[in-house]
Design brief:
A four-stranded antiparallel β-sheet has the order 2-3-1-4. It starts with 7 loop residues before the first strand and ends in a 17-residue tail after the last strand. A hairpin with a 5-residue loop joins strand 2 and strand 3. The protein is globular, with a radius of gyration of 16 Å. The chain has one domain: Dimeric alpha+beta barrel (Alpha-Beta Plaits, 2-Layer Sandwich), CATH 3.30.70.1060. The protein is an alpha+beta fold.
Length: about 100
């Protein structure tokens, strides 16, 4: 008997600091690396930064809100930001895939 765990979808808003200190800037490469890992394993479904570099938004899948916080705790920048988490009723997106194959 297999145990199948359903995951809920959450929208996370991360408010970045108004002033990027040199210490905070030094965390950005490791932050990107961690996000890329979570994108690859489909924990994070999307990740966006506004043009003013003051807000990050991400959509992620997790068991519950506590699990979201556990994942966010692995972010190198987490001690320098404010976080809001919203559980979503649904999450639709445009299909992603390979372009149509054209046979000549």
């Amino acid at each position: 008997m297999s145990t199948f765990q359903t995951l809920d979808t959450f929208q996370v808003h991360i408010l970045l600091p108004q002033i990027f200190t040199s210490r905070f800037v030094a965390l950005i490469p490791s932050q990107r690396q961690r996000v890329n890992e979570l994108l690859e394993d489909r924990t994070i479904l999307n990740y966006a930064l506004d043009i003013d570099r003051s807000n990050l938004w991400l959509t992620m899948q997790a068991k519950d809100q506590a699990s979201v916080m556990d994942i966010l705790a692995t972010f190198p920048i987490i001690k320098d930001v404010k976080v809001e988490i919203f559980e979503l009723a649904f999450f639709d997106s445009a299909p992603m895939g390979l372009p149509d194959l054209i046979m000549n």
